[in-house]
Amino acid sequence: MLASLFAVLAPVFIVAGIGYAWARSGIDYPTEFIARIVMTVGTPALVLSTLSRTKLDQSAFTSMALACVLCMAGMALAGVIVSRLCGRDWRVLLPAFMYPNTGNMGLPVSLYAFGEHGLALAVAFFLTLSIFQFTLGIVLSGNASSVKAMLRNPIVISLAGAMPIIFFNLELPRWLANTADLLGGMTIPLMLLTLGVSLASIRLHHVGSGMLLGGLRIVLGGAVGWGVGALLGLEHMEKAVLMVQSSMPVAVFNYLLAVRANRSPEQVANLVMCSTVLSFVWLPVVLAWWL
């Protein structure tokens, strides 16, 4: 069991650690360029290649999408309750609780733990959450933009491109499938490297409260994921991926939006870093449950 867990988590931690060490060494890392290429090219390609290669049926996709929406609703309620109890601004805690790091961490962990089918299910969760994060999440963070700009978001476009593949059981032309595989293959490593670089740039204050709230985020996320999976009667693999994705730490993107809106970025940075550190302990527990 320990060997299986190590095989799943070691690539994630090692590649993120390389990014962290790279940033701490002072060597330049073009974060903005890498983030843009991953979001505009790599992620849409990964979505197309994964969903076309694994043939995720529409019922499984719909189930994961519905489960994701219910998990977000449950964590939104948890965020409001915790913010009231702690006397914090709900506009700070709500996005942090609703939007975990299902991309940079969730996709690699799901791939290494559950294989290609697990990755396809994780992509369905990631796509659904991203739609809300890049629309409602931007509004909540105080970075509201036009509807036209939101519709031009590459995640939204990749979802639109994936729908015919899923619901009409289409196959990509071989040249397009090979291109999507090639471009999608760079996405997960670059996501993990950028995660490490981003964590290295965050400075912590009030670590105690960050550990408490970050711990609540990942544990409550796992509990909500388990409860939603049981409520919907999902299959074993779907439940496992759902709980793993729901257990992810606070996404770095929440910190970037908080900086842009100047809405307590230090608090959000604490939540990102502390929940990520705690996930190194929590994720092995979750994976041991399912593996």
TrEMBL record:
Look up and give the membrane topology term. Multi-pass membrane protein
Instruction: Extract the Pfam families matched here.
Output: Mem_trans (PF03547)
**Transmembrane region positions?**
33-52, 64-85, 118-139, 151-170, 182-202, 214-234, 240-259, 271-290
A GO BP term, please?
transmembrane transport
Task: Say if the entry is tagged with keyword Transmembrane helix.
Answer: yes
Key words, A-Z: Cell membrane, Membrane, Transmembrane, Transmembrane helix, Transport
> In the UniProt record, does the keyword Transmembrane helix occur?
yes
Q: Which domain of life is it from?
A: Bacteria
Compartment(s) where it occurs, according to its Swiss-Prot or TrEMBL record = Cell membrane
Q: Which terms in the GO cellular component ontology are assigned? A: plasma membrane
Q: Which InterPro entries match?
A: Mem_transp_PIN-like, Na+/solute_symporter_sf
Question: Which protein family is named in the record?
Answer: Belongs to the auxin efflux carrier (TC 2.A.69) family.
Name used for this protein in its record: AEC family transporter
- Organism this protein belongs to: Pseudomonas urmiensis
